[in-house]
Amino acid sequence: MPSVRRQLIVVSNRGPVAFGRDAEGRRTVRRGGGGLVTALRSLVSHHDVTWIASAMSPDDRRVADEAAGQAVDEVAQDGSPFRVRLLVHDAQAYDWFYNVVANPTLWFLQHYLWALARAPDIDNALHNAWDRGYVPVNAAFAAAALEELERQPGASVFFHDYHLYLAPRFVRAERPDAKLAHFVHIPWPEVDLWHVLPRRIRAAVHDGVLANDVVGLHTRRWQRNFLRASEELVGAEPAGGDALAYEGRRILVGAHPLSVDPREFEELASSKPVLEAEEGLLAQRPERLVLRVDRTDPSKNVIRGFRAFELYLGAHPEQHGRVGMLALLDPSRQEIPEYAEYLGSIQRAARGVNDRFQRPGWVPIDLRIEDNFARSVAAYKQYDVLLVNAIFDGLNLVAKEAPLVNERDGVLILSENAGAYEELAEWALGVNPFDVAGQAEAIHTALELGRGERRVRQQGIRDQVREHDLHAWIEAILGDLDRAREDPLTPEEAVAFQA
Amino acid sequence: MPSVRRQLIVVSNRGPVAFGRDAEGRRTVRRGGGGLVTALRSLVSHHDVTWIASAMSPDDRRVADEAAGQAVDEVAQDGSPFRVRLLVHDAQAYDWFYNVVANPTLWFLQHYLWALARAPDIDNALHNAWDRGYVPVNAAFAAAALEELERQPGASVFFHDYHLYLAPRFVRAERPDAKLAHFVHIPWPEVDLWHVLPRRIRAAVHDGVLANDVVGLHTRRWQRNFLRASEELVGAEPAGGDALAYEGRRILVGAHPLSVDPREFEELASSKPVLEAEEGLLAQRPERLVLRVDRTDPSKNVIRGFRAFELYLGAHPEQHGRVGMLALLDPSRQEIPEYAEYLGSIQRAARGVNDRFQRPGWVPIDLRIEDNFARSVAAYKQYDVLLVNAIFDGLNLVAKEAPLVNERDGVLILSENAGAYEELAEWALGVNPFDVAGQAEAIHTALELGRGERRVRQQGIRDQVREHDLHAWIEAILGDLDRAREDPLTPEEAVAFQA
Prior knowledge:
Low-confidence stretches of chain A: none
Strand order of the largest sheet of chain A: 5-6-4-1-7-8-9-12-11-10
Number of helices of chain A: 20
Number of strands of chain A: 18
Oligomer: homodimer
Helix content of chain A: 40-55%
Structural class of chain A: alpha/beta
Mean pLDDT of chain A: 92
Radius of gyration of chain A: 23 Å
């Protein structure tokens, strides 16, 4: 249990609920999707939360309009009350914000996805999308947060992710004494990569995030990159431990890996939808199952995973017919061309492997493109090998969720560029995500490990995740916020740092 | 003049001379090509040089065979004697070394050129090319250097570039007391990029370079990246200033930008071939000339340069018919598919711009794919704007050479990712190489600058290059070698660092 009940203004692009309508036209409320929202939902049970998010659908917008832009009262599944304030953005501005700046630009940059020889071409389209999309949408989030701060002057504001790098700066400008925290759920790349963005944009990103009192990232690696980039791009200075001094303020930069609620997954594992999905899987599963569960995002490295499995099959004909790969892929951001193309490449790659090896009664790669969480959890229970080979990944929650419910002492193969690797390396088989030969070897090694060793490895991951669960993550961030406020720069330090 | 005449064993993949045959079948010797060889040639005038390089042609191999693998005596154009030792490699091993590891892998990595979502696929082909190509070719260079050290035990060995990262380690293993220096002529990327290579390879690269007493890079940026990567990948430790401690030795890591011999370019400018080429240019030149001179290497960013020029022309119809771009591109590494494809893309991109804008008497982009140094120097004299917009570039000598001989107070537009930017930023128009809108604006700004300001900027570059010329660069590296030997770790430090 948290020590203190707090007033929190949570700000994220995607909200905790999505409004809709049932067949009779009555309003419905369902839980919002996405890992971030799932992770933050438990905040509502322990704190006094007002959640600011974008209205995503016509029904969301209708709710926002009926409330005249104010927050509305909602009740979480466990009965906890909270408030939701949905922002209706100009559609064109939101498109620039989301489909030009946030996803193809910031997400690609922060996952090292660009082929710099050819992309990006930063032209007036990006400059325009920044000025007329990312900036005003961030300003709208900040304006809403400022209104909520009027109502609850003692509240802390907790921003999330790469959509909102500028909002803290707008809040800070109006409320120099506000308590602001920001968690970045994706990798923070090194400074040379930030140089891909025009100077004014890369500076504004770092300046905006440094307007917070607390900045959280998943790993020491992203933390180190953020500290260095802040020093080199906007002149922040080291201020003891993991802190930076910037414009006379001290900013705590923490490395706090997100986690999951183990009880939630244990309950899910025996829920009706999961048990039904599991029956279907059991009827079809190969003797030994290599699983991947991802969005169809280029950062997830699906194609190299297939290629590694192909190399494995090529080297181990004795396993043909016995080992199969199940790829459960949630289609992602199909309105962005790079994502649509990537999905096509995934399908072609799987077909290539199957054409080469399949025979009656055995298809090497079972590719399912669908959003089916129950099936994913069922597959979590059934894998012998879980392949997480992301090119770069802020954390990767699958690597924490799946071992909690797995029933076959399955082995985790984990990319050394996934944030979770910092925590789980000891119990996983680490792979270089670019080294398909190494991944093929890891698949073989994982399938050959004895049951005893597999069990020890799986138990190690479970213990780690249970001890460092979602609750501990939230407390760590909020604890940083307390520490930051207790330990401002002295006037002398502030003067020295500003000089 | 250098203070001391030294015994130097220079080791580089490409040698200072190339052997051939004239029409009567008699052996000929011509100067080897490439910027590195040009830069190092002057070493021969001031020092006692033995140069070890790969035999590149059948005639090179015949010379090597006739000398039974030993060095042969040669005489430089200024009459200075030196020795050349050509290594005959196994053809298959050399192909792996050069066409799999050195160029598509190390060069691409060190210029940030990979589209990590799709490339590289590190498979057994790379592991094999490393083990059976890069390693043995480096071992052969080391064996030759060791034989020359037998002959001249007091000599220093001076390795060059990304072809030879392992050779110093092989030499050090046999001769713990040898004086070894290495200059890396290309960028050193940040540590996350090195993670693209398998662990054993990225570790071997850093371990190999750290076997030297002195490591040189062009800029403080590459130096910083090398220091950090050495600490993080192989556990080197800071040892005061720009030094690292590693395996009980102190290694000086210097930032010394390569330069040119200004007198050589002044003489070239009035040489007959250049004057003839200049006549041709003058007969065809547009009123105002935007020039680029590059190899057709993806790192040079030719296509974004064309796109920027297209944006400029689109925004300034009043300049149609008056401003033209001349692109002198030396075809490069066409045996590597990425390079062949890139050349095709360059041609298509130029045609696209010309199709859109050209009219009788005016072709916007005059694209010449050829290796014609005289024409390049002639164009150096004639440009109004010189565009150097490399994605990443170790230094970029064109940015130093061309202003020395330019006769029109031409303006340098310079990528902030070219090493030369650290020295020349004050007098250039800096651009982000990915920001085509920014480059279009820079072209406009450059063409609108008044003559007075243009002259001041050009003079600034000339003064900088004359003061920091090639001779100063050589002395800086050799000076580091003296400093490194004078200041070894104390036994106590060595023990502490090894602990």
